[in-house]
Amino acid sequence: MEKKSKLLTIGQFAALHGINKKTLMWYDEIGLFHPAAVHPGNGYRYYSYYQSSILETILLLRELDVPIDEIRIFMQNRSAASMEQLLQEKIADLDRNLAHLKAVRKTLDYHRQNMLTLLKMDLSEISIVEKKERSLVTVDVNQDLSFDKLVDLITDQTKKYQLRRLHDASYGTMISVESLYNGKFEDYSKMFIEIPFPIQKAGLHIQPAGKYLQAFYRESVENARLCYQRIFEYAAEHGLSLSGFSYEVIINENVIDKMEDALVQIEIPVNPDPEPLSVR
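Now predict its structure.
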C-alpha cells in the first residue's frame, strides 16, 4: 500500500502505461488528464498510482478512435451507464469492422486462388472440382438490356447489400444448361455477385454444394462454343448430367488490359446420369 501511495515521475508513469511522456504533457495542456501534483519550483509533473485506471480509460478510447473532444466530455460525466453505452457502441463498430476485414480476406483469397490457377492452368483440361454452397445476389440480364441499365442494377445491389466496392465480392455471369444444350452460348440470364459475409439467404440465388465440371476458355463466342462442346462430350463419356446453370467468371481481370486477353472459368454442377444427355 505504501508503494501505491507514492507519486511517480512523468517518465515512470509513462513507462508504466507504455506511452511517451510527451503524450502525458499534451493531455495535461489540453485539460484532458492532469498530473496529481506539480513541483512548484521546477514544474515537474508527478502522478499517482490511482490515476492509472483513468489514464487507461482514455487510452482505450483513443485506441477506439474516439475524438479527443468526445473523450473530454465523457471523462467529465462518466458513469457506469455512460461507460456501458459507449462500450456497447464501440463493440458494435468493432463487429462491423471485423466482418468487413473477414470479407476482404475472403476476397483476397479468392483472387489469390485465381492467380494460382492461372499459373498452372491448362486450357485443354476438363476437371471435376468440389464446391461449397454459395449465396449469390443476381441481376437478371438479357440481350436487350442496355449497358447503362445493367450498371444501374449492379450499383443498386451493391448498395442494398452494403458492399463498399464491387471488388469487395466475386462476380460473374450465369447461363442455363438448357440454353447451352440448345446451342445458345450467349443466352446469359443473370449476373451474379457473391456476398463475402454471412447474410440472410431469403431472396438470394443458392449455388448448390457438390461436384462441378470445370473448364477454361479464352474470351470469344467461338471459343465458348468449342469449350462447351468439349464439356458435353466429356460429360457424355463419363456418364455425367449437367444441371442448373453454368457459372462463368473471368479469372485474370486483375492482370490484363484488354478483354480479348480474358480467361473465363466455367463451373457447372454435375451428377451421375444413368441416361447421359445427348449433345445437340
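Residues 276-280 have pLDDT under 50 and may be disordered.
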